[in-house]
Design goal:
about 400 residues; alpha/beta; abc type-2 transporter like fold; five-stranded mixed beta sheet; about 60% helix
């Protein structure tokens, strides 16, 4: 039988009454209200100002074996395009490749010693070595350099052919388009999946560590055992580390599954030492767990802790350079992203996994992660001072 009109009204009335009650509870929960208001504003700012597909201040190196007016003009044309920072001069290919391997340069431009003569003959050629670990940035940078090379005009083209009466290919004072011989290192085919799989561990560990640690201390508060825990014959630092150790073990299990899965399913195995990778991963795990623990120390309920943790995850993914290369981010946004541990971990993980870097090449991001963890511990220690009421 179909419900009568009174039954439908009663059904709707009950639903609305319960909805009003739940709405009243949410309205008085300051944490939920703040997150509902702040999350769209934060994401709007992050995606509006942080996400770009145009490189800015790309680090590059130049090996100018010609050292002529024409070669210097080519370097000037590339730098004045607005996409590149001032170039770093190198004296050999070995030195330039070392800069690429350490991540200090994205591009190495090699100008041969016969560049001036080849410009006069109408067939100039230069070599462009690019860091292919970031396929999007490498492809963009290659496209910009190709455009500049195609529009290159030398104001000081050698006049030997003109003196000999031979015609120049593109007219006096004008150089023909330069042929670029490109070589993409570390990821020759610019395989996009490599870029994301090399950051997979960062995504996994951020989610797992924040989810595990953000509920640790707040659970003690909800159970009424927080002050009792602090009264134990152990320091706050010992309590923190004791709570983090099981999560560290769990994180390494997830990390192992991610590495082995990427190798078995996609044939993508780390090129560097797995031992170095595991060792340098520990500071990141501890720093991320520390952030989760600090969130747990700030929150009063599990719901608050979850909201704050989720609020932290999205900006971390976007601004760290894991989803979108930070070389494409404008200044200001780049510096904010450097505050997230994931920024430094994705740098070291990509260097080890894609380039086969050793401990020396990842020492700087590793030390930064250690410093971040130490700073977070200070904040947690301050927040965990016994308080009554």
């Amino acid at each position: 039988m179909k419900p009568k009109g009174g039954g439908v009204r009663r059904f709707v009335s009950n639903v609305l009454a319960i909805a009003y009650k739940e709405g009243s509870l949410l309205r008085h929960d300051r944490t939920i209200v703040q997150n509902v208001l702040l999350q769209p504003i934060t994401l709007l700012l992050v995606m509006g100002f942080g996400l770009r597909y145009t490189p800015r201040d790309v680090h590059w190196a130049v090996l100018d074996q010609s050292e002529t007016a024409a070669s210097r003009q080519l370097v000037t044309d590339i730098q004045s395009s607005g996409y590149f920072s001032p170039p770093e001069r190198v004296g050999s290919r070995t030195e330039g490749r070392a800069l690429l391997n350490r991540g200090r340069a994205t591009v190495l431009l090699v100008i041969p010693d016969d560049f001036r003569r080849e410009v006069a003959r109408g067939r100039p050629t230069v070599q462009l070595l690019l860091d292919g670990t970031d396929p999007l940035t490498a492809a963009r940078v290659s496209g910009y350099v190709s455009q500049i090379a195609a529009q290159f005009e030398a104001t000081s083209v050698p006049s030997s052919r003109e003196r000999s009466g031979e015609p120049t290919t593109s007219g006096p004072g004008r150089a023909p388009p330069i042929e670029l011989r490109e070589e993409f290192r570390y990821n020759p085919t610019l395989r996009d999946v490599n870029f994301y799989l090399s950051a997979l561990s960062g995504f996994l560990l951020t989610n797992i560590c924040l989810a595990a640690a953000s509920l640790g201390l707040v659970a003690e508060k909800e159970n009424g055992t927080y002050e009792q825990m602090l009264a134990q014959p152990a320091t706050a630092l010992q309590i923190i580390l004791g709570k983090l150790i099981p999560s560290v073990v769990m994180s390494y299990v997830a990390l192992t599954i991610g590495i082995v899965g990427a190798g078995l399913l996609f044939g993508y195995w780390p090129k560097g030492s797995v031992i170095v990778f595991a060792a340098t991963t520990l500071p990141f795990i501890l720093a991320t767990l520390g952030i989760g623990t600090f969130v747990s120390a700030l929150a009063r309920t599990s719901a608050q802790a979850i909201f704050i943790a989720v609020f932290f995850i999205m900006p971390s993914f976007v601004l760290s350079g894991s989803m979108l290369p930070y070389a494409l981010m404008p200044h200001g946004v780049r510096e904010v992203g450097a505050l997230f541990p994931l920024r430094w971990y994705q740098i070291l993980s990509r260097r080890i996994i894609e380039r086969g870097a050793g401990l020396e090449e990842v020492m700087v991001p590793t030390l930064v992660l250690v410093a971040l963890f130490a700073g977070i511990l200070v904040g947690i220690r301050w927040r965990m001072k016994p308080r009554l009421g």
